[in-house]
Automatic annotation (TrEMBL):
The keyword Membrane does not apply. InterPro entries: IMPase, Inositol_monoP_metal-BS, Inositol_monophosphatase-like, Inositol_monophosphatase_CS, Inositol_monophosphatase_SuhB. Mg(2+) binds at residues 69, 86, 88-89, 214. The keyword GTP-binding does not apply. This is Inositol-1-monophosphatase. Belongs to the inositol monophosphatase superfamily. One of its GO terms (biological process) is phosphatidylinositol phosphate biosynthetic process. Keywords: Hydrolase, Magnesium, Metal-binding. One of its GO terms (molecular function) is inositol monophosphate 1-phosphatase activity. Its cofactor is Mg(2+). Its EC number is 3.1.3.25.
Amino acid sequence: MIGSANLNIMIKAARKAGKSLVKDFREVENLQVSVKGAGDFVSKADIAAEKILKEELLGARPTYGWMAEESDEIPGQDPTRRWIVDPLDGTTNFLHGLPHWAVSIALEHKGKIVAGVIFDAAKDEMYFAEKGTGAWMNETRIRVSGRHRMIESIFATGLPFAGRSDLPATLQDLARILPACAGVRRWGSAALDMAYVASGRYEGFWERRLNAWDLAAGIILVQEAGGLVQGLDPEGNIVETGEVICANEPIFENFAKVIRG
């Protein structure tokens, strides 16, 4: 798969940041960690990875805007294009030695996500998609699951922690969805949850209160893999609201109906 110049820049940057993270992950017990908020940690590894991504992406496209988890937003000279970056999605997993975390990079053009890369460096799985060219994992074209029945389907979500206000709504979601499906998974990385929907490992995913960098790359991946992506409010802008439902097309309507209550 030969992508555009921008996609190749994104893949190269993700690999470079992923290599740095893997090195730190091997020494995770020795990392110096500071507390950023209840249940939300930031490490030297996270900040170092973002520095690499910033140098690679803005070095190659200095006029683009920049939005990322660990640094201030930068408006670009080109107001139509913006990098949306999460250097380490799944930070808590990383800091606990769990090999389920990813580098996530999206390119936004005129308010739409047009390219996305999610790199699971611990497993060497590079997910990427670009508008109109399909979705891929390494050298393999990926598609959403072909399952048609909710009762045979596995879904993913995030569970609120540390007293977050969306816990009651999520518990209500689970009360509705668990009796109707084959299981719900909570693996701690929204980016990989969406990559797994794109590759058919999950039938669907939903979550509230995400940040733009958590889900931006996943939007284009699921869409290019043949899936559907909406907000919990169907008219809402997913990147702005941070609320998302995605699934394969046969499941989507019933799944969304259950989650939306």
